[in-house]
Amino acid sequence: QVQLVESGGGLVQAGGSLRLSCAASGSIFSSNVMGWYRQAPGKQRELVATITSGGMTNYADSVKGRCTISRDNAKNTVSLQMNSLKPEDTAVYYCNWRTMSSPQYVYWGQGTQVTVSS
């Protein structure tokens, strides 16, 4: 079992910045992927960004150039720095942790609300 605790959501004006953080605890496999997904009302959950334990990153096209994902393997934390926020970034953001190989384990955080006002 892996527990994920998120922090850092909130209300911000368009053009502003927020930093989301997520701490993982429990049975941490050394080879894993941590990331952020988001779900807006009435929409499916979608990828925001991921980062492997080796540091490889992947971003959704909608956030490229505006968001930076980083992690601290020693602390089992992942962060998402979001800049130039837009109203369409409003969503519940979920931290995700998964193994990179079999057996496949996937865990989710409880979610943190990000609201961007115009």
User: How would a textbook summarize the main sheet?
Assistant: 7 strands, mixed
> What would you call the shape?
globular
Order of helices and strands: EEEEEEEEEEE
Radius of gyration: 14 Å
pLDDT average, as an integer?
95
Quick summary:
With 118 residues, this protein is mainly β. 0% of the residues lie in helices and 57% in strands.
Identify the notable features of this structure and list them briefly:
118 residues, mainly beta, seven-stranded mixed sheet, four-stranded antiparallel sheet, 0% helix, globular
Topology overview:
Blueprint: E1 2-7, E2 10-13, E3 18-26, E4 32-39, E5 46-52, E6 57-59, E7 67-72, E8 77-82, E9 91-99, E10 106-108, E11 112-117
Parallel strand pairs: 2-11
Antiparallel strand pairs: 1-3, 3-8, 4-5, 4-9, 5-6, 7-8, 9-10, 9-11
Care to describe what's here?
This protein is mostly beta strands and about 120 residues long. Helices cover about 0% and strands about 55% of the residues. It has no helices and eleven strands. The protein has strands spanning about 1-5, 10-15, 20-25, 30-40, 45-50, 55-60, 65-70, 75-80, 90-100, 105-110, 110-115. The strands form two sheets. Strands 2, 4, 5, 6, 9, 10 and 11 form a seven-stranded mixed sheet that branches. A four-stranded antiparallel sheet has the order 1-3-8-7, with no helix packed on it. Strand 9 (about 90-100) and strand 10 (about 105-110) form a beta hairpin. The termini are far apart. The relative contact order is 0.32. The mean pLDDT is about 95.
